[in-house]
Amino acid sequence: MAGEVSMDGGCDCGEVRYRMTRAPMIVHCCHCRWCQRETGASFALNAMVEAEHVELLKGAPELVDTPSESGKGQQIARCPTCRIAVWSHYAGAGQKACFVRIGTLDEPDRLPPDIHVFTASKQPWVLIPEGTPAFKAFYSAKEVWPEESLARRQALYG
Length: 158
Description:
Elements: E1 4-10, E2 17-22, E3 26-30, H1 33-39, E4 44-50, E5 54-58, E6 62-66, E7 74-78, E8 85-90, E9 97-101, E10 115-117, H2 141-144, H3 147-157
Parallel strand pairs: 3-10
Antiparallel strand pairs: 1-2, 2-5, 3-4, 4-9, 6-7, 7-8, 8-9
């Protein structure tokens, strides 16, 4: 799914609506215990995209500072009314990138995971499709990401 896209999403109550206007650099499925606790689910599914390609259509999410296992924390963009998390800004990536919560997209099935991370703590009944890269912890983007995504990341962070 390279290049320009138009994918809309939002919170449960409809107060916050957004449009992702470019395909993500990568879609992570994170199985760490922090993501499990934060989402109340077995994993978090996030699409990393440049913040300039996430346009607000309606409302404004509230940025909530939360702790993280790294100790650097993250900001979660939540609807101020229904409190649904629509994206995050992780400390390592900063405000330049949004990690869009796939489940908040109107068509979440368009973005399956490119990679599974922190599988050492995944729930044992979660099955990772054969052929999908999976790592017990994290990984080196240089070794895994497609060239186009690496170039986008380089352009974003220098």
